[in-house]
Amino acid sequence: MLPNITTNKGISYLLLTLFLFVSNHIQLTAQNTEFEVAGPLQAAYTYEVNCMEVLFQNTSEDAIYVFWEFGDGDTTTFGSPVHVYEVPGTYSVTLTAHNTIGQTASITHEITVDYCPGINNDNAGVTNDEMIVQYAHCPNPVDSYLEFTFEGLRPQDHNSLSIFNIAGQQVKYIDHPQEQLTVEVQDLPEGLYLYLLQNADGKTLVMDRFAVAR
Predict the structure, then answer these.
(1) Could you tell me which CATH class the domain 45-113 is placed in?
(2) pLDDT (tens digit, 9 = 90+) per residue, 105-126?
(3) How far apart are the C-alpha atoms of 190 and 52, rounded to whole Å?
(4) Which residues on neighbouring strands pair with residue 98, listed in sequence order?
(5) pLDDT tens across 69-80, in order?
(6) Pairing with 213, which of 34, 90, 142, 147 sits 20 to 30 Å away (CA)?
(7) Cβ pair 39, 63 in contact under 8 A
């Protein structure tokens, strides 16, 4: 019996047609596909110092994720954060940028912060030994009412208590504070504040800070 030549040729033709169709489809798909290629990763940022507050602006290129280290133990993954330092000084602030293929790049700047001019100028030359008033404040951080204790105040000294925000603005003033004093802070926004207890000559008897948090 002769083999079915027509049938074998038909199968071969069908397979050839299928092969050509698949090859063309793959070529067309490759031509119409856009492949994402990661660009050169670069970590960068700018900053603006406002007394104890620093405004950071992330300017990194080809980064999808950033990690900030502020040098005081605090960190964040927020893109362009605002950070408030509690203690004046110079801090190493590092920004680490990450791209889509797992690469990282870092940059570090040395940033110096200090109290605003006028907040502690009257305290120049006053040492801790000269601050003879024993004091305390609580709670810290505070929400509504701050309790002060000043032991050793003399009414004849005409003392005053001033509270400043980090911008150096006086937000509260209490004349002739008593040894036990309650100050309402419900009207103050969240943030860091500095207070000074001074006598009539402007000498600083107490200088400390507290935070308002809700």
Answers:
(1) mainly beta
(2) 999 999 998 877 655 444 444 4
(3) 14
(4) 65, 104
(5) 999 999 999 999
(6) 90
(7) no
Domain boundaries, the chain: 45-113, 121-212
End-to-end CA distance of the chain: 96
SS3 at position 157: helix
What is the second-level CATH architecture of the domain 121-212?
Sandwich (2.60)
- In sequence order, the 6+-apart residues with CB closer than 8 A to the CB of 44 are 58, 59, 60, 61, 95, 107
Do 45-113 and 121-212 agree at the fold level? Answer: yes
Closest CA relative to residue 157, chosen from 194, 204, 208: 204
State how far the alpha carbon of 39 is from the alpha carbons of 30, 68, 103, in Å. Answer: 21, 22, 11
Asked if 109 and 47 count as a contact pair (C-beta separation under 8 A), the reply is: yes
Look at residues 78, 120, 113, 75 and name the one whose alpha carbon lies nearest to residue 94.
75
Q: What share of the chain is helix, strand, coil (3-state, %, to 5)?
A: 15, 45, 40
Reading the block at residue 71, the tokens are 């040098």
